[in-house]
Design a protein that fits this description.
This protein has five helices and seven strands, in the order H-H-E-E-E-E-H-E-E-E-H-H. The protein is of the alpha+beta class. It is elongated and about 95 Å long.
Amino acid sequence: MEDYQEQGAIRPWLLIVLVVAILGAAGYFGWQYLNKTKENPNPNPSSSTMTSESMPSDFNFVFGFGANAQNQLDTFKNQFTKDMVMDDDITSKITLTKAEKQQIYQNMVAIDLFTYPGDITPSALGNGQPIPQVGSPRTSYYFKVQANGQIKEVRWTDMGVSFDDARTAKLRQLSKTIENIITEKSEFKAMPTPTTFYL
């Protein structure tokens, strides 16, 4: 009878030890998971930053175009700087509407802009050799885009030749879309025209 009572007294202690061990293991692995998630919340931001057609609240960008991409729209500051060639550049207040920004964002999503290389250098007929620049400055483009806490920069000189692949053609179309939005703004139309030109 005494042996039976001693065994019965031991069982609650075994249960307590088992419960404590389970809770300790759960807490350890839970801490490991939360710590890993905190250190690396987005392991591949370049491919997942612009996956939704719903424009994020922090979406803004700098877009440069023209000779050496010196015409620049900056939606962070709501301003546009116009290249005046030999004269001092002129900056004017230009603010895009929410609908215009949404259109541009959707176009960026459509071409998967965040997966483009930072510097795009076209090569002649795919032989890997850069095309030499001759004469007046080529039209260049610059993008600095913020979305979902990530920043992407893309630089590209458009050589305007037929060997461009589909991705550069899409980038050209995106650039033209933004240019058209800018040049239709009354603030842009009120800015003076350069008195000199690139040769």
